[in-house]
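Hi all, a correction to my earlier message: I attached the wrong file for Endothelin-converting enzyme 1. Here's the right sequence:
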Amino acid sequence: PKVTGMVSHPPLLGTQGQPLYGAAGARGRKGVSSAARRRLYALSFACVAACCVIYVAVASQGVAVERRAVELLGEGMDKIDAKYLTAETGDGSDLIKKLQQMWFVGAHGGKPEMKAVSDEARELVAQLVVAPFPEEVKKPISGKTNPCDDFYEFACGSWTEENRHKIPAYKSSVGLAWNQASHRIRDSMEELFKTDEGPVGTYYKACMDLDHVNKQGAEPLKPWLAVVDGITDKKSLVKAVATFNKNNIDNLFSWYVGRDPTDDETRAFFLTQSAVTLPDKTYYTEDSDEMKGHRAKLQESIGHLFGLIGREKPEEEAELVMKLETDIATALDDRVVSRGDHGTVVTWEKVQETTPDWLWQEWLEELTSCSDSPDGGASMCPEGGHPAVLATGKEGGKPLLMENVAFFKKLGPIIKTHTTEAVQALMRWKLVHSAGPSLSEEFLDSLVHLQKDIYGIQQKSPRPRKCYYSTLDTTAWPAAKLYADKVFHRPNMAATSAMLEEIRTQFAAELKVEGWMADEDREAAEDKLHKMFFQVGVPTDAEGKEDWPEKTTALEGLLGHELYPNEMIGDRLQIQEGLRDLTRKPDRRKWGGSTPTAVNAFYGPTNNGLWIPAGILQSPFFDVRNSDARNYGCIGAVLGHEMSHGFDDNGRQYNARGELQDWWSPSTVKGFEKGSECIASVFDSYSIKGRHVQGKLTLGEDIADSGGIKFAYKAFEASGERSPADRRLFFTAFAQTWCEVDRKKSAATSVLTDEHAPGKFRVLGALTQFRPFAETWQCPQGSPMAPKDGTRCHLW
Ligand SMILES: [Zn+2]
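and the right structure:
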């Protein structure tokens, strides 16, 4: 992964044609593992002195606890009416503090008579604090949870309760903010798609002509199946695999062209491990009923789809695929290892030595040659092919890097053990699996069946929705240009840029005083922060002029009325552009991560830059009509998050030019590691559906979240007079960015595969470790959201 996003988009769910936000919420009633709870409560009992005083006083005065509480609350209410609601001179913080203590003592003290007082105090807190919030912020809040007990439940509880059973049948999860923004884009774009006369409209029309697609059946696959059928020996097998590679279908292993991680002037050719059909290697290797069930369902689906393409022994071939895929999955480096792998410089001789059972030169020659597309469509490649790619790893050539060396070592024996028929079967499966979403309903339905098993979705997308997202995917850049020209409110760009600068100022101030950082490293870190570029809304050059990439227009005149061939042209364009890139000087600013329509934000470690797409610059993330508190809590935290990626466990390894380099002294590295290990252990303690969050997998995102909330908060404080009510709104807006509901299966999948922790834990993890949160909410030390001072993790 070259770019880090705010939320993840797991492998595009073809049948849905839509990105799924990886971070999923509402996992179980409490979500926090019992071990974590025990730890939190253990902390709480060490430091409830202040609360105990009240409790003892209440009891010793001989007044009935309940009456005393009501009296106390009554006094408070008077004060609140006068001060808090008008927000002139104060907001009743003292009262809230008392109520919080009463809640806390009652909730954790165990005396039955305190329970009622505590419950009342808890509800009163909720009522008091939300009173000044705008309606749309109030609505998702649950008055049943105290903000110091579980802030996610407090901020999102009513919304999750209401939406838990309303997940559309064709989706596996719904996120409050992300969905609102995506729906708004779709509402304004669908009409444009219908009337557009360029590639966007052409693709959309072809997709919407379902009768035609259905009539075609498996026909569009025939030229591709013929490639597989034509394999007679090892040599023709290798050539066929490369032909598929040129059309964006990987087999056995994968590859790409990217920036040389150590040199910002050079691009390199990378070999890397491939993906498998099920979401993670665990699905193939774990000996549980759950995973065995998924494997059986996959095999059944493969068999069914092989039947649809007329294979004579579909079940036998499905078994061959499963055996081969299981071996490949078992050989994969796991995600934590893969995350830290920046590639090893090799030569093709070395590659041949590592995986001797593959004809690497033959593969590379075919990959880099310009041959006609098997289906007769535009080949998209330059005449003469790509000699520079052929020369990689050689004297005078561009670098060749291998990621996942351990995988490539294991790949040799796998290729040796499995028959050519098995690899052919795998190729057919990869073809039909990737093509299915563009084929007739028979294919779609069969794939949806498989997704039902993996993600829990119930049925396929309505056709217009499916076609909208497929169009946004295949004709991504021309569609983004349409959005920018016809929908995007450009004044949002300037306001966002100003906010970014304020956040950068706060980050820079922190670098000067960060205790664990050695003095000699501060300057270089500031330099890196200073050189970080921001692209906001749409692609721009260094002078701020709009600068759209070639692919915005490259598809013009090439698409027709056949859906799958259109898809393949889009894929070939992407592949050919990648290969062509090798000889081009890298442009640090080149838009990465996604397109400007994404409801997301990105940081590129080798670019040292941020892309903030137009898609996220809208309500509820950002709106000039919203208060500063909401804007800083939502988009501000997103911007701070991306900026902090430049200094997370991966990003920090790159210098100001985005080059891998040891630019920190050992003592700074040690300090950083101490802080990041602390954060990883917080997230390790969270679990869901019996699976623990993998703190090492989500570490980069968790570090980014902790920096994001901090610098957004500091910028918010520095840019105006803020009342306690404003601060509470800031934190609530932040948490509501992550209100989510998802299906059980999808939750389990994301914890195994997603580098982002579930939304709920992102809220709990970031806010428990940020002291101003506990201060703002008057949380008693030791309550779940307020660990004892001195025990918090500290990094940025
Ligand atoms: Zn991120």
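Sorry for the mix-up. The first helix runs from residue 34 to 45.
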